[in-house]
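Suppose you are handed only these lines of text.
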Amino acid sequence: MADTIDGGELCVKTLKAANVKDIFVLHGGHLDPIFQACLDHDIRLIDTRHEVAAGHAADAYARQTGRISVAMATAGPGYTNIITAITQCYLDCTPVLFIIGASPLRDAERWPLQGGIDQVAMAKPVTKWAMQATRTELIPHLISHAIHEATSGQPGPVLLEIPIDVLFNQTEPEKAPIPESILPVASPAPSESTLKAVISALTLAERPAIICGGGMLYAKAAEELRQFAERSGIPVYSNNKGRGVIPTDHALCGGALTNIKVAEATGMGTPDVVMMLGARFGMFTEPGMLGPGRIPSDDCTIIQIDRSSAEFGRIRPAHIPVVADCGEFLIALLNKSTDTDWPDWSEWAGGVHGLSSWHKHAYKEVVKKTKLLHPYEAVQHIVNAIDEDAIICADGGEASGWVEMVSKSRNPGQLMSHGYLGCLGIGIPFAMGAQVANPDKRVLVITGDGAFGFNVQEFDTMVRHDLPVVTVVLNNKAWGMCVHGQQSMYGGNRLVVTTLADANYEKVAEGFGAYGELVEKAEEVGPAIKRALDSGLPACINIITDLEAVLGDTSGEKITQAKQSEGKIAMPYYDNLEKSS
Ligand SMILES: Cc1ncc(C[n+]2csc(CCOP(=O)(O)OP(=O)(O)O)c2C)c(N)n1
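From them, the structure of the protein bound to thiamine diphosphate can be written out as follows.
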């Protein structure tokens, strides 16, 4: 009989062709042929204690490496558990291949174990592409197609469901050719005329700005961006995903998008021409949780560079829409602008950078007034105790806000935080993915105590896989952002389902074999972080912080406005409602 190959081996050999080295999984017998083949083909399996953690870790791994990343979950509950992670990849445009087990094709409509649901249909609204493998020999083709879908155009998650009978089945190798390599699709570059229009619009500006988003993370063009910013003198803002494309202490770094509102409030004015590099308009630019008013203002000229035309005209008109990869665009722009005579914007750019650390002055006195440690001060001590290249994963309601404000970034991907899903629990899994992708870097999680609870079981994964991530809990014994929201909306005596227990989280971590410490005083934070890093183990530092400390952005101001105005109704997180007459 001729040699045969099973679906698992086909799967793994195809993933090798795409240079996949690590896969995040939680076991299910439906997928065993894949796991067995990984043993033979030198692919590392990082097995987690909850499927959502495998999915989030794969998400972080893709953000860190800029390459396709892979997560697997078994049929039925394994799949339903991982859907949150798929959804986050979808909203944040992360290229992850999810391979999902399924009950036998043969047993459709017979109520088989972990079956009876249309998994592909469930995936369609939250993936770029979702498909079922109906024949074993189709597996290599479907995987390479899936990877191209995930990584080309606007990146995003893809899902391949492989029913157990299709995976265990065997075929002759010549019926299922495996591609030699699966190379990234060439990225689109801008045309000459577009570049001319971009340069001309920028040179006419009085207060130009560049806004970077996730597109810059995958473009791997931080160096080109820095060169262009320095050559033109245009300051650079970025959202969470684009952070670090220019170092936070660079004289042209404007920091977070919310700083545009700070510039407006100080009378400095806001940008009149912005160049959006792989950044979208949406919750980070529109009125709502981040305060009233739009970023940038309505009369601003918008140059928008994105790999997908679907973003143009969404919410805001793009005056110069450019379908291009941000890296290709910046290279072409640098070449085209060697002789450009850029106006002198140094006063504006200096002001923009100066305001990026507004919080240092704003919180200097505030931190002295809380009875317990203020989270702003706690994060300052953490940041001062770690090396400049450490990766920080922020999680929690207000906790992540403090981290975004205080932490410094020298490189893209150095801070990973919440995106459009606003999903608590990402911190620890993100850190696991980042640590696997960067074995030589130190990785920390800074999280609220509420968010910490979602994936605390992953200390087991970190211990087993030697991932020395340091997790710091900012423990205010509450769902802090929710408490503060209820206080503003309903008054302090109307708190409901928003408080938490006084738990020894460091002891939970110790129970898994990790290093743990409890910290209550400011001066203890730095030394405790250093001891945790030196332990070489996964670690948990439980810092007691003051619930009285409220993050400036929390809806208070907006709610007060609504309360004072007849025609408005306040809602948390979104713009106020207009009362219907
Ligand atoms: C998975 C998920 N569940 C619920 C929420 C709603 N939510 C947003 S912020 C928040 C409180 C977070 O509390 P914690 O993590 O302790 O951070 P803190 O605000 O106290 O800093 C909650 C419950 C969410 N965003 N995600």
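What can we learn from it? The longest helix spans residues 77-92. The pocket of thiamine diphosphate is lined by residues 396-399, 422-425, 448-451, 474, 476, 478-482 (CB under 6 Å).
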